[in-house]
Design a protein that fits this description.
The chain is of the alpha+beta class. It folds into 3 domains: 2-192 and 348-404, FAD/NAD(P)-binding domain; 197-257, no CATH class; 269-335, Helicase, Ruva Protein, domain 3. Helices cover 29% and strands 26% of the residues. The protein has 11 helices and 20 strands. Strands 1, 2, 7, 8, 9, 10 and 19 form a 7-stranded mixed beta sheet that branches. It has a 6-stranded antiparallel β-barrel with strand order 12-15-14-13-16-17. Strands 3-6-5 form a 3-stranded antiparallel beta sheet. Helix 1 runs parallel beside helix 11 (389-404). The two termini are 22 Å apart. The chain binds flavin-adenine dinucleotide (FAD). Residues 9-15, 34-37, 42-43, 46-48, 52-53, 133-134, 161-163, 166-167, 170-171, 173, 175, 349-350, 377-378, 388-391, 394 line the site of flavin-adenine dinucleotide.
Length: 405
C-alpha cells in the first residue's frame, strides 16, 4: 500500500503550484504529484506562443465565464494578481507587464516559469511520479484510493488538477471530470474554448495566414451575442486570432452561429464610401486587383471582389458603379460567415465546463460535497478570456488550496 498525506493528480500549472504551497504550509506532511505524461508542466511550455502569459495585472469577474465566475470577486480577494506575481518573484522569476496588462517572464521563455516551479518542488522534496495515469478514484473509510494501471495509492487529502481536454497532444484529458462525477459532483460537460471558429467559405483558402485588425461579432441568427475588436487571422476553413478565440467560448450556447467581420470598425459607412470613391479616381486606369491599394493587401481585396461577385478582375477601376461600391462598403463592414460548432479540442487553448461553482468552497477550493477533496484549475467551471486569465486562475486556485490543505 502506498500512502501519502496529500496526493495531487495532475502536474500542470495548478497542481505544481498547489504542491509547493501545501508543502511550505505543512512541511511534515508527505506530498506527491501523480502525472500521466513523461514530465510535469508540458502544457505550460507551449503557453503564450512559448512565452507564457502567466497572469494579467487586472483580473475581474467580466474576464471570466462559467458558474464559478459568480464567485470570482470573493475568490480573488484572497489571491489578487499581485499575489501570483509576488509568489513567482519569491520563486526567482522576474516578470514584466505588456499591452493590456499581460504578464510575461522577463526572459520571454515559458521554460523559465516551469523551471522555477520545478526547482522549488525539488527543493521541498515533493515526490513527482510521472508516467502514471490515474484510472479511477474511490473514497474508502475517510481516505481516497487512487488506482493507476499497476498501483494503488492512498491519501487523506486529494487534489484533482487534471485540467481539461484542450490540446490533447499536450496532455489534455477529461479524466478529472469523470472522477469528480463518480465522487458525487455535478459537472458541466467540457467544450472547447479559446479556439479558432470553423466557417463555411471557399474564399478563405487564398487568405490563409493573413492577419488584419478589425471587429468580429458573433450572432445567434439575428441576435448579437458578443463582439470583440482586435487581431483577426484567416485560416483555411476558419477564422482565428485573439478576438475570435474569445468569441469561441460562447459558441456552444448558440443555436445558429454567424460571424460578421468589420474590417474597418473605426470608419463610418459614409467615410468608407468617400474613401472608396476617392480610390476609384486615384486608381482609375488600373484593374480591380489594385483598387484597394493603400488599404488592404491585394489578396484580401480580391477576396472582397469575389464575395461581392464583381467580375472580371481585369476590369478598369473606373468602371466601378455606385451600387458596386455600396456592395463593397457593406461587405467590408459586415462580412458574413456561417459558423460551425464542433467538438474539436485539438486547437483549443482551454475549455468551458467543469465542476459547478456552488459545489466548491471559494475560500479553500475544497469540495462542498466530499470532505478533503480539492478541485483546481480547468476542472472548475470557469474559463477566462485570452490575456493570462486562465493561468492566473490555475495558479491562484493552486495557491488557495495549497494554503488550506
Ligand atoms: C497552446 C496553449 C497556449 C496557452 N496559452 C496560455 C497563456 O498564454 N495564458 C494563459 O493564461 N493560459 C494559456 N493557456 C491555457 C492554460 O495553459 C491552461 O488553462 C492551464 O494550463 C490549466 O491549468 P491546469 O492545472 O488546470 O491544467 P494543465 O496545466 O493542463 O495540467 C493538467 C495536468 O494533468 C495531467 N493529467 C490529466 N489527466 C491525468 C490522469 N488521468 N492522471 C494523471 N495525470 C493526468 C496532464 O498531463 C497535465 O499535466 C494555453 C493553453 C494552450 C493549450
Amino acid at each position: 500500500m502506498i500512502y501519502r498525506d496529500i496526493i495531487i493528480v495532475g502536474g500542470g500549472a495548478s497542481g505544481m503550484m498547489c504542491a509547493i504551497k501545501a508543502k511550505e504550509n505543512s512541511p511534515q506532511k508527505s506530498v506527491a504529484i501523480l502525472e500521466k505524461q513523461g514530465r510535469i508542466g508540458r502544457k505550460l511550455l507551449s503557453t503564450g506562443n512559448g512565452r507564457c502569459n502567466l497572469c494579467n495585472e487586472q483580473c475581474s469577474k467580466s474576464d471570466f465565464h462559467g458558474s464559478f465566475a459568480e464567485y470570482f470577486d470573493k475568490f480573488a480577494e484572497n489571491v489578487p494578481p499581485k499575489k501570483i506575481i509576488d509568489e513567482f518573484f519569491s520563486l526567482g522569476l522576474l516578470t514584466k507587464t505588456e499591452a493590456e496588462g499581460r504578464i510575461y517572464p522577463i526572459s520571454n521563455h515559458a521554460s523559465s516559469v516551469l523551471d522555477v516551479l520545478r526547482y522549488r518542488l525539488e527543493f521541498l522534496g515533493i515526490e513527482i511520479i510521472c508516467e502514471t495515469t490515474v484510472k479511477n478514484i474511490k473514497k474508502i473509510k475517510g481516505n481516497f484510493e487512487i488506482i493507476t494501471d499497476d498501483k494503488k495509492f492512498y491519501c487523506e487529502k486529494l487534489v484533482i488538477a487534471t485540467g481539461s481536454p484542450a490540446s490533447p497532444k499536450l496532455g489534455g484529458t477529461e479524466n478529472g471530470l469523470n472522477f469528480l462525477k463518480t465522487l458525487g459532483h455535478k459537472v458541466c460537460k467540457f467544450y472547447p474554448a479559446l479556439s479558432p471558429i470553423k466557417v463555411k467559405s471557399d474564399i478563405l483558402t487564398s487568405l490563409k495566414g493573413l492577419r488584419v485588425q478589425g471587429k468580429v461579432s458573433l450572432f445567434d441568427g439575428k441576435k448579437l451575442v458578443r463582439e470583440e475588436k482586435g487581431e483577426i487571422q484567416f485560416a483555411e476553413k476558419a477564422l482565428s486570432g485573439i478576438c475570435v478565440f474569445n468569441l469561441s467560448t460562447y459558441l456552444n450556447k448558440v443555436e445558429n452561429p454567424y460571424l460578421k467581420v468589420n474590417l474597418m470598425p473605426d470608419f463610418s459607412e459614409n467615410l468608407l464610401k468617400e474613401i472608396l470613391n476617392k480610390n476609384k479616381k486615384i486608381f482609375s486606369d488600373r484593374t480591380l486587383e489594385d483598387y484597394f491599394t493603400g488599404i488592404f493587401q491585394k489578396k484580401l481585396g480580391i477576396a472582397l471582389f469575389k464575395t461581392a461577385e464583381i467580375y472580371p478582375l481585369s476590369r478598369k477601376v473606373s468602371s466601378l458603379e455606385e451600387n458596386e461600391i455600396n456592395k463593397l462598403t457593406s461587405i467590408i463592414r459586415n462580412w458574413e460567415f456561417q459558423a460551425y460548432k464542433d467538438n474539436d479540442f485539438s486547437k483549443s487553448q482551454a475549455c468551458a465546463g467543469g465542476v459547478i461553482g456552488k459545489e466548491i468552497n471559494t475560500l479553500t477550493m475544497e469540495s462542498k460535497i466530499v470532505k478533503n477533496l480539492y478541485i483546481l484549475g480547468e476542472c472548475v467551471d470557469i474559463v477566462g478570456d485570452c490575456g493570462g486569465y486562465n493561468l492566473y486562475f490555475a495558479f491562484a486556485s493552486g495557491i488557495i488550496a495549497g494554503e488550506n490543505l
